[in-house]
Amino acid sequence: MNPPQDFSRIRHDDNTSWFHPWEYLPDKGRANRTIVSHAEGIYVYDEHGHKLIDGPGGMWCVQIGYKRREMADAIAEQIMRVPYMNPFSLTSAPPAQLAARLAAMAPGDLKHVFFTTDGSSSVDAALRFVQFYNNFKGRPAKKHIVSRANAYHGGTHLCALVSGKYRGDQCWFDLAWPYAHFLPHVNPARRPAGMSVEAFCDEKVNDLEAKILELGPERVAAFIAEPIQASGGVIVPPEGYLRRCWELCRRYDVIFIADEIVTAFGRLGHWFASKEVFGIEPDIITCAKGLTSGYVPLGAWLVSDRLFGEVAGDNSRGSSFSCGFTYSGHPVSCAAALKNIEIIEREGILAHVREVTAHFQRRLNDLRDIPLVFDTRGMGLVGCVECTVAHAHGSDLDEQRVLELDVDLGARIDRHCHELGLMVRPLINQCVFSPPLIITRDEIDRMFDMLREAILRTMHDVERELGIDVA
Ligand SMILES: Cc1ncc(COP(=O)(O)O)c(C=O)c1O
User: Fold this and answer.
1) Could you read off the pLDDT of 143-162 as tens digits, one per residue?
2) What is the CB < 6 Å shell around ligand 1?
3) Beta-carbon neighbour count of residue 450 at 10 Å?
4) Nearest CA to ligand 1 atom 13
5) For the stretch 172-191, what's the b/e string if a residue is b when 16 or more beta carbons lie within 10 angstroms of its beta carbon?
6) Which end of the chain is more exposed for a tag (fewer CB within 10 A), N or C?
7) What angle, 0 to 180 degrees and rounded to 10, lies between the N-to-C axes of helices 399-420 and 441-466?
8) How far apart are CA 115 and CA 325, in angstroms?
9) 3-state secondary structure the chain
10) How far apart, in Å, are the Cα atoms of 174 and each of 127, 181, 301, 453, 459?
11) Looking at ligand 1, which atom is closest to the CA of residue 288?
12) Relative to the CA of 21, which ligand 1 atom is closest?
């Protein structure tokens, strides 16, 4: 039984004092966010007692679902045994065992595991390793990082510098950095009219090669890519794209960083997606989120034996890798990760994801028959539905008005979903979802039934308000 909570007090304190991530500043003080009162399985409960399917799975992270007693026990036991340990000079069982587990699960020769506290600190520290590596090898000009439009790699300064997603007009951060370069988008749904997906893929691979050649391979340090771009709108690149980019990186001696912060730990049905799903063996993989199913914070990045061997041991010339965190390899977080991995294994969750994926993706793609829907896309248990009123008729909507309406569509759908019993994550005119991996086939049906109804209601609202016909 959960103790009673004073929701009006929580509302007040939250509105007045908590400066949230990506805070939408005009709403400061009156954002009135949904208060999560408790959570169990794939459901979260709001302050009114509404039971909602957690469509986004927290933030792409609650793989095993909520309220797992054995996770709570493992965390509590570790707190009573060793709640903290200085990772700079000491070690203990959970981080050592977890490092060995991750090294065994990872593709290729990714044998060295650096622990961080979250996704951003993983990407940040991995990029610092790339810099360290090339400077150490006597090639300080090899510093340029190639990234892509819509990429999201985290919230620290260095992550933001390589994230294409931040580059909006209203950003106000200092993001100009001569070492970051952004390739055009890789969204097949937005390819030029008349172009085949294969030709589009060729063009995207050429974008990378052209950029490497323009800068000069001797100046390009790394290419960083999410296997599927998550926060950028679940953009699944064309078949073969990642493998061909990886081959180019090999050819030009460019480090390939796979940002698997969303795709690892079962989201696409495998521990890591790089090898099993996309056929690549990156030089570095970053991960976080599903590593602990979000129960406690933890991140990690893994580096290949090939790269590490060039700067460590007999080759190290007395150097240290001067980068680390007080909470690197936190024993409580690592104990949670080990328990999380044990649960995923014991319950066959990876196989379950592979089994229900086709159904999930079919139900997602079925939404395309709704006139408001412009595109649906996804992979594994990740999906996105993108809507637009661009083709509405019965009114003289100009481009500006279409943009204004589209911007609000995700939030409108989200509101209807909430009334129906589903949470999604609105991103402008899109809704993305990545439910807990334990979701059953029946629950997937319920989820898409609600989403369909919410999109239809949104479409009818817009039609009624504007006197237009979206169909
Ligand atoms: C692909 C990717 N990389 C990095 C991050 C940053 O992770 P965190 O928010 O844990 O710092 C995210 C977060 O959503 C992500 O999706």
Assistant:
1) 999 999 999 999 999 999 99
2) 59, 118-120, 123, 152-155, 226, 230-231, 259, 261-262, 288
3) 21
4) 154
5) eeeeeeebbbbbebbbbeeb
6) N
7) 140
8) 9
9) CCCCCCHHHHHHHHHHHCCCCCCCHHHCCCCCCCCEEEEEECEEEECCCCEEEECCHHHHCCCCCECCHHHHHHHHHHHHHCCCCCCCCCCCHHHHHHHHHHHHHCCCCEEEEEEECCHHHHHHHHHHHHHHHHHHCCCCCCCEEEEECCCCCCCCHHHHHCCHHHCCCCCCCCCCCCCEEEECCCCHHHCCCCCCHHHHHHHHHHHHHHHHHHHCHHHEEEEEECCCECCCCCECCCCCHHHHHHHHHHHCCCEEEEECCCCCCCCCCCCCHHHHHHCCCCCEEEECHHHCCCCCCCEEEEEEHHHHHHHCHHHCCCCCCCCCCCCCCCHHHHHHHHHHHHHHHHCCHHHHHHHHHHHHHHHHHHHHHCCCEEEEEEECCEEEEEECCCCCECCCCCHHHHHHHHHHHHHHHHHHHHHHCEECEEECCEEEECCCCCCCHHHHHHHHHHHHHHHHHHHHHHHHHHCCECC
10) 19, 15, 26, 42, 39
11) 10
12) 9
| pLDDT score of 398 | 75
Name the token pair of 17: 């004092």
Beta bridge partners of 431: 385, 426
- What size, in residues, is the chain? 471
Q: Between β-strands 255-259 and 220-225, what pairing exists: parallel, antiparallel or unpaired?
A: parallel
Torsion of CA 80, 81, 84, 90, to 10 degrees: 170
Q: Give distance in angstroms: CA of 120 to centre of ligand 1.
A: 6
Question: Distance, CA 309 to ligand 1 centroid (Å)?
Answer: 28
The rounded Å distance from CA 20 to ligand 1 centre is 16
Structure tokens at 388: 């637009």
CA–CA gap between residue 24 and residue 31 (Å, rounded): 8
- Per residue in 240-288, pLDDT (tens digit) is 999 999 999 999 999 999 999 999 999 999 999 999 999 999 999 999 9
- Is 275:269 a contact under the CB 8 Å cutoff? no
Tally Cβ neighbours within 10 Å of residue 6. 9
What's residue 169's pLDDT? 60
- The whole-angstrom separation of Cα 340 and Cα 78 is 14
**Percentage of the chain surpassing pLDDT 90?**
91
Half-sphere exposure of 396 (CA within 13 A, CB side): 0
